[in-house]
Amino acid sequence: MAKRLRMLMRMGNLTRTGQVGDGREEALADYVTAHARPGDIDDVIRAIDTYAYQQATLINIGDEKGLLLDAAVRRVRPRLLLELGTYCGYSALRMARVMPPDARLCSVEFSAANAAVARRIWDHAGLGERVTVLHGTLGDDGRTIERLTTRHGFGPGRLDFVFVDHVRDAYLPDLRRILDRRWLHPGSVVLADNMKVPGAPRYRAYLREREGTEWRTREHHAHVEYQTLVKDLVLESEYLHAPSGAEAGETADPPA
Prior knowledge:
This protein is an alpha/beta fold.
């Protein structure tokens, strides 16, 4: 619990840089390359969890909530996946482990340092070209969206699965950006972490308002990563269809 409190005190640095500020992310990459078998995704995941429990807490989805992510990817069997918030690459490892062999995952990360850590860990795990990290954000005046479209095959109805685990204020705007480009199709799933800590109330309210018409959402109760005292919530939302008029590019709500 004390480690979690110290982490919360560093939230300002996390918001600005994407890192805690004490070098733990680079130290994690060193730990993984020293303690996990090369080319073994399971062992790399094990090493990251061990580091988070024994060395320094990490802000990835963690082992408990990671099981929810695993189960969702297995159910959907996606061919094209998008992750918003790479951090050190842990959740991408979990998705790569269970997604179909011919699936591709693009992970977007605003911190260049985190992207470098993730690449190093993925190289050690042997992920190859199945997983790609893009340094940027969906809100960077279209630059990252353009790269996803022109280089990675994103387009109307192509995106099967989205994992959202980045800055809380970007959850809803980024979902709207995805919807505006009609990347989703009926049956696409969006899984969102940290619905209680730190929380994304506008995102959750948006989905509640559209429950049963545009979305069908399940709420998974769990705990904040790597401890059992602080509760958290993961939302798993299946896209049903666009509202009337949206097919023509209309937006039901004003931009966030």
